[in-house]
Design a protein that fits this description.
10 strands; CHP02241; mainly beta; 142 residues; eight-stranded antiparallel β-sheet; Phage tail protein; elongated; Phage_T4_Gp19
Length: 142
């Protein structure tokens, strides 16, 4: 019998390189649009036909460090240089063994949010990066 795993142990990789320190990832979703067709004489239900599947942006949050590579990637987009990357989000167990993996492709940043500063609090400074992508699929565990 399998049991649920905590959502607090995960890794994020971009182009095969583990990007350390993300505290939160959201947007791992997919939604398929559909069209309803009502057939004459069939009053119990409409026929539903699948159309396109949409994937919302991935939102990555991490504590601010002295590394600038995520900002520089976004800065390239600002300057008209779109560099698409492949990536993965991996759920791991307490020992660091990969349990599940979601691979995404064609990703590039479309939004960066720097830390909010407040001298009356001792919270960690957080930066947020939002990535659009071409979709995700079930990945092979490493």
């Amino acid at each position: 019998m399998s049991r649920p795993n905590g959502s607090f142990r995960f890794r994020v990789e971009l182009d095969g390189i583990e990007v350390a320190g993300f505290s939160e990832v959201s947007g791992l979703q997919a939604e398929t649009e559909y069209e309803e067709y009502f057939e004459g004489g069939l009053n119990s239900h409409p026929h539903r036909f699948a159309k396109r599947t949409k994937y919302p942006p991935l939102v990555l949050k991490r504590g601010v460090t002295d590394a600038w590579e995520l900002w520089e990637w976004y800065e390239d987009v600002i300057n008209g240089k779109i560099v698409r990357k492949t990536g993965a989000i991996a759920m791991v167990d307490l020992a660091g063994n990969e349990l599940r993996r979601w691979d995404f492709s064609g990703a590039y940043p479309v939004k960066w949010h720097g830390p909010d500063f407040n001298a009356s609090q001792s919270a960690v400074a957080i930066e947020t990066l939002e990535l659009v992508h071409d979709g995700w699929k079930k990945g092979q565990k490493k």
